[in-house]
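User: Fold this; tokens only.

Assistant: Input:
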Amino acid sequence: MALTAAMGSGIAGLRAFMDALNVVGNNVANVNTYGYKAGRVTFSESIYSTQSAGSASTDVTGGTNPSQIGYGSSVGTIDLDMGTQALESTGMTTDVAIQGDGFFLLGDKNGVGVDSLDRLMFSRVGNFKIDDDGYLTDGKGNIVYGFVSTTDNATPGADKDPTISTVLVPIRLPLAADGQNNTELGEAIYPGQNGATNVDPTPGNNNVNADGNCIEYENLKIDDNGKVSCTNKMTGDIVTIGYIALGTVTNPAGLTHTDGPYYQATDSAGEISISTPKSSVTGPMNNGANDAAGNQPPNLLANSGTGVKSGFLEQSGTDLAQEFANMIIYQRGYQANTRIVTVTDTMLEELINMKR
């Protein structure tokens, strides 16, 4: 093995420890980031050069072991600790933390089908609010998905005893009634059983007011079962808007971190299952209706052990004491590898000077 290979091993070690320090730096920088999942580095040996192969024993001599020299180390994996962390009280009734496994599901207004759940974003950060269009969104404006209250009919309308659809949709406030056709002004107009949240706002259609506005609400809250409810300011009725959905995957560590608190379910994450906190909504998805190909929809996952807690957010997964310990270890490893490089350089210089 050439002397320069020793320098190559030292440089490989420098790169590996630098990558590890980058992970530590990111963990420490996110010590106060809600829902942050800390990274953990594992190292791997690099390829080996075989100086001599092993041999079996004979009648005369014993066997020999192979002689190999490695080419340094590299980062083997960077794993995320997806475990549940401690909860921090915020005092805001629309802040929600998951107690157990699972993720909030977020997306856009267009919705997704059962066969395209991987388009949704997964997040453990439940800092929710109602936006100016009546949608339940997180702090970055992404819409929360779940199961909303609907009428018993296929078409939208007023309903004093709405049912919960099992069609996964963006959660939105019901629209407000125009006070015609036996409806009370400002009364909630619920979607039909297909779960559609967009109702034709043309005056006279579906008894919706001319502006197509959602109901005026107050006292918005989310309970431990994931139920989102409020008080209709016009009628005084308690309105159940819907239930927050949770998503789980076979391999949570296989989720791909995209941006901020969001993860994407790629092939490495495995199968996606949908549920609600404490199994508050059960049964087959899509209200049991088959898809266009005639396939039956999956059932909502039984999830009685996982709930949500209003007024709390999940703290960062960074353990500062452990990160400082790792920082010292990686720093010493980096320093040791610099010595390998400088010593090898000195030896090469001596070799070159032999000709002088």
